[in-house]
Design goal:
The complex is a heterodimer of chains A (225) and B (126). In chain A, a hairpin with a 5-residue loop joins strand 7 (206-211) and strand 8 (217-221). With 225 residues, chain A is α+β, with helices and mostly antiparallel strands. Chain A has three domains: 2-87, no CATH class; 92-145, 2-Layer Sandwich (CRO Repressor), CATH 3.30.240.20; 168-221, CRO Repressor (2-Layer Sandwich). The longest helix of chain A has 23 residues, at 57-79. Chain A contains eight helices and eight strands, in the order ααααββααββββααββ. Helix content of chain B is 89%, strand content 0%. With 126 residues, chain B is mainly alpha-helical. Chain B has one domain: Up-down Bundle (Four Helix Bundle (Hemerythrin (Met), subunit A)). The relative contact order of chain B is 0.13. Chain B contains five helices and no strands. Classes of the chains: A alpha+beta (225), B mainly alpha (126). Chain A binds chain B through residues 21, 52-55, 57-58, 61, 64-65, 67-69, 71-72, 75, and chain B through 3-4, 6-8, 10-11, 14, 70-76. Chain B: This is DUF4363 family protein. Chain B: InterPro entries: DUF4363 (IPR025373).
């Protein structure tokens, strides 16, 4: 049993390292081949984990091989348009200038109901509001609405506003993130001043504190359980 | 780019390791099969002292290569070889010719199977 425990430990860390090296993508945004590799890695890790008669290398080698191949293929996809088209495919235009491309729908084996469903999910219940609809390589659709149906922006209303910055986390679960504080242009004295305004004496009483995009300080105290 | 280089190095190491271990298994299985043949001859001739010596040599070599085989091969075949060697040892001790020869054939078969399974061939690929 101790053997299984240690093997599970080793394979867990291996899978974590491999998934980190493969890069950051949510499941829904993965290319089909990336999803397949993720599922394969899970299966390959499970088999030697539960069966001590199978050498650990029987799981480690295929996992690392898949990682290597996936990283190399991804790298080549970036460098070569041809390889990218072969591996990932090309986006497909389903609606062009307001007209549904029926041959493209047939080629992709999508029926009209599927298309209408996807448009509704993208908040376009009326197909007549759509100028272009593109099916991306990961299966998701992108919609470019007709000019009159697009969302209004500040530019349309001639309103000028200062560019917003990224919000910055300063304290997380009682721990001060000094680097973030410094990058935001403040120091600990300033932070202590802010905490005193909220009647807080110590940093470790704070659950979460951050600077908004417009440099306003907000915090939430830790709940006393 | 760093990750790409690391993965290329990993692939190169695996390929190199795979060729090395394939050759290692080939050479050691070949040596073991030769020793098994000599054991077979000794048992056929009912030369039990020589058979005992030959078996001990096989067991000594087996213990050395087992340390490597356990890391790279599935344990079912290795356990089979261990079981067969124990049986052969007992049968030689009681000078039981027929049963010894039967176990020697089984031992030879398992060692040959291990050797053939690790060869890079179309039948092993598919």
């Amino acid at each position: 049993m101790l053997i299984m425990f240690v093997r599970a430990f080793i394979l867990y860390f291996l899978v974590v390292v491999v998934m980190r090296m493969m890069g950051k993508r949510q499941i829904a945004q993965m290319q089909p081949f990336e999803l397949v590799i993720t599922l394969l890695i899970a299966e390959l890790a499970a088999t030697p984990m539960e069966n001590a008669s199978i050498p650990l290398l029987n799981g480690v080698i295929p996992i690392l091989t898949l990682l290597s191949v996936q990283v190399i293929v991804s790298y080549l996809s970036i460098k070569s348009e041809t390889i990218s088209n072969i591996i990932c495919g090309k986006p497909s235009i389903l609606i062009s200038k307001g007209v549904v491309d029926q041959s493209e729908l047939r080629r992709l084996r999508i029926n009209m109901n599927d298309l209408l469903e996807q448009l509704r999910l993208k908040d376009y219940p009326n197909i007549s509001d759509v100028e272009y609809c593109i099916m991306e390589t990961n299966g998701d659709i992108s919609v470019i609405p007709k000019t009159g149906k697009a969302q209004v922006s500040l530019e349309d209303l001639n309103i000028s506003k200062q560019q917003e910055q990224l919000p910055v986390t300063l304290i997380l679960d009682g721990q001060l993130l000094s680097k973030n504080l410094m990058n935001a242009g403040f120091n600990e004295d300033w932070l202590e001043q802010q905490l005193r305004k909220h009647k807080i004496d110590k940093i470790d009483e704070v659950f979460f504190a951050f600077l908004t995009s417009s440099k306003e300080f907000h915090l939430q105290k830790k709940q006393i359980s | 780019m760093k990750v790409v280089i690391i993965t290329i190095v990993i692939l190169a190491l695996f390929l190199g390791g795979a060729f090395y271990f394939a050759e290692y298994i080939n050479i050691n299985s070949g040596k073991m099969l030769n020793n098994i043949d000599r054991l077979d001859q000794a048992v056929l001739a009912e030369d039990w002292e020589s058979a005992q010596t030959q078996l001990q040599e096989i067991e000594r070599d087996w213990i050395k290569i087992l340390k490597v085989y356990e890391v790279i091969l599935e344990h079912y075949d290795l356990d089979e070889i261990n079981k067969t060697l124990v049986k052969i040892e007992k049968y030689i001790e009681v000078e039981e010719k027929n049963l010894t020869l039967g176990e020697i054939s089984q031992l030879k078969f398992v060692v040959e199977t291990i050797k053939e399974r690790e060869v890079f061939s179309i039948s092993n690929l598919f």
